[in-house]
Every structure is written in structure tokens, then in C-alpha cells.
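Hi C.,

You asked whether I'd gotten around to modeling the 276-residue construct. I have! Everything is below, sequence then structure, no commentary in between.
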Amino acid sequence: MSIPIFQVDAFTNRPFAGNPAAVCLLEGPADDGWMQALAAEMNLAETAYVYSVEDGFSLRWFTPAVEVDLCGHATLASAHVLWQTGQLSQTEPARFHTRSGVLSASPAGDWIELDFPCVAAEPVDPPAALLEALGVRAVAVYCAGPDYLVELTSKAEVRNAHPDLTALAKIQTRGVIVTAAANAGAPRAMARASGRGQPGYDFVSRFFAPAMGIPEDPATGSSHCALGPFWAARLGKTQLTGYQASARGGVVRVRPEGQRVRIAGQAVTVFRGELA
């Protein structure tokens, strides 16, 4: 029996940008070893496995190396596939049962809005090896759930960071977020042109997770569980737009709501096929 599989670029409105995720539509539970092997074969940041359950869909995420507890871009991609294949109507929210509890995705015009848990960023004294591996001078460092969040002085420093990924992989953390306000270290007129020459970004970020088999993630939904509340408090805004300044780039809208964060993005199907 063949198994449908899709590759979707998430947090972008055009192919070959944003973050690619594989979405595998199953008829029921699958063997963990098989799912991990397929994720390694796909060699994308995440491969998602989805099948129908009584009250929505089961959803699991695997990097090429490990299963993870939370992933934004592959959740967005999974919802996109369910709507595109007619498993859900175009107006019906997707309800996912995951290792991080029940998560939902709702259509919002040309965007998809995820309902994810809020992650607080708490100041910490970082291990010396962290900043050495990043090769940056930090404004401050925070613990943000399973990640470190490192604030830099400007978006240029975020974009120009060239971390030692081998050294970074030895640090006990899921991943490392580097971020700066879009207008930090630049005149206001330049801030309006943050991102890749497009206006309207409030902050920029990048995400590195070499210990998880992801040297740099192109566009990361789960990091915005922390980035959203972090920058909302500092910028005094309730709705923000972030630009993930990877080589592929990604645009993420965030709206903190108490203990939850609404994370919105767009998605494009690049190809569909069948596993033999």
C-alpha cells in the first residue's frame, strides 16, 4: 500500500523559501524506527506524521536525528496538507494531539494561525562555551524553555553571525536563538526596510540546533513561542511580525495571548508523491 507524502515550504508565500517540511499521511500509528529512518531519508529539518483520531489528528515530528516535542513549521505544513487534500474543509480548524498537548491550526485568509504554548525567557548566566561558539557579543542571554535566547545589538549582527556548529552541538540545549529588534542599531527609516528590503518587521532572528541534526533552521515556529512574548514586552506591541534571517528566509506573525501564543505563517506545496 502506498503512503502519500508531501513537501511543503512553510512561513513563506513562494516555493524554495521558508522552511521545508515533509508531511506523511498515515492510516494509523507507525513504527518509531521506520519514522526516524524516513526522516533521515528526507533529510529536512522536520518530517511530520499525521493520522486521523477520534477528536482530530495525531501529529509527531522527527528531525533527521531525533523525535522532538514541538515544531511550528511542520504543524503549519500539516494543516496546509489536510486542507489541500480535502481531509478538512477550507474553513475547518485542524486539531492536533501531540507530545506538547493539543495544538490547533486555523485558516486566516491566506495565512494559517497556530495556537501554541507561551514560553517565558528568563535571564541566565550562559556557559562560556555558548558565546564562544556563537562568536558574538551578547546584550543578554536567556533560558527559553529548551533553548537559549541570545539578544544581540542589531539585525546586522544577527545576519552576520557565523557560529562554530561543532562547538555549539556540545552545549546542553535543544537549540540557540539569536535575535535583535529590527530597528536596533539603525535609524528608524532603515528599520522600516528590515528583512530583505521589505517593510514591517519588528524583530529578526536565527535558530541553530546542531545537536538535533539541524545546523540552522530556515524558519522556526517553536522559537516564536518565546520570541513573541519577549519582543512584545520590550516593544510594547500586542501583534508583531518577525523575519527569520536564514539563507531561505521566513516571515512569522506573532500575537501573545496570556499563556498561549498565536503564530501565523503561509505555506506552499512544492511536491506530492507516494512512498512505495
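If it helps when you're writing up: Helices lie at 32-42, 72-84, 128-134, 155-160, 165-168, 188-191, 194-197, 224-235.

Thanks,
B.
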